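REQUEST FORM: STRUCTURE PREDICTION
Request ID: SP-0412
Submitted by: Lab K.M.
Chain count: 1
Length (residues): 372
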Amino acid sequence: MKLLLCGGGCGEQTVEANKVFNSVIDHEKPLLYIPLAMDEADHPYDDCLEWIKGELADVEFPYIEMVRAYEELSDKDFMAYCGIFIGGGNTFSLLKGLKDSGAFSKLGEYIRNNGIVFGGSAGAIIFGKDILTAMAMDPNDVGLEDTAGFDVLGGKSIFAHYESGWSAEEKTRYTQFIKEYSKTHEAVIAIPEEDTVFIDGDKVQVIGDRPYYIYENGQVTEFSGPVKRTKAVKYFADHLHCSQSVLAAYAEECGISEKQAFRLGSCFGSGMRKGDVCGACTGALMVLGLMFGEDHDGDPDERLRSNRINDMMLDRFKQVNGTYICNELLGCDITTPEGVQYARENGLFRDFCPKMVASAVDILESIIKEMK
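STATUS: Completed
RESULT:
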């Protein structure tokens, strides 16, 4: 399955998520749009169709096919579409319509067969373990009793629109609701509008530039990985080396300026220009050294700690990506003109290297949390 579960954002908030969506779909097939969580009396579906056309203007597919009733879904061959977009609205109404029409089980079979779905707000919440998290914002006017969702997040439920334009009173009310809910129910992943959870098979990644939060047993944990990942990938898109991009994303935490990070990481890109250790890994190692490395003050434990975090970073990167050697990752020798030409012609620097920057940041984040 490939699922993009958005916290409810639109426009600039979902640009990066739309890019990922565009990268995984079949561009020859149309998109199926389900706006049924909206009440058509308040939000005419023709207006919804114009909205989604604008939202996905940069996503490549021939046209959008929209349904106006849940019963229409029973006649649809979901595999005939590049993907399915499920829009926001009332979560209880959406889930009830899907279950009463039989579309819920059909959609479940579709995602189990590597189907592609982009869900926003209510369209995302239904993929958690339970949609009772929506009670804080959505009334259950339809009398839905079976509130179980698709449960694709390892037993966690979803809270959308987290801290998005909240007043002080709303922040107190909603965060207290989630805390109490997580004490007596399952854990909850709270997603701001700027973030999208991307599930690709058994891999889960958060796309966006805001921290997300996990509430469990009344306790909350902040995860800032998406912010750092997005920042590092943007640096790389601005033609900085992979080593510079990762280090600069953590400049503040490392006690150096952005300019100093650029200079320090400038000689480590492209595997130190020898196709050796990936610069994204080198940048991550510099971050770990600045945050937890040896001060040479006579403490033998510091040397052992430095050695351990070095091994953790490289071993985990190799486990995830197969190797940490630049030439092996790219499948060509970039110390030769032929190798550089191959990488450019196949879009490796443009498409593959940003993924390695993102992967290095994800692994770096996990190590930082362990060390703290």
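NOTES: The CA atoms of residues 179 and 218 lie 4 Å apart.
Reviewed by: T.R.
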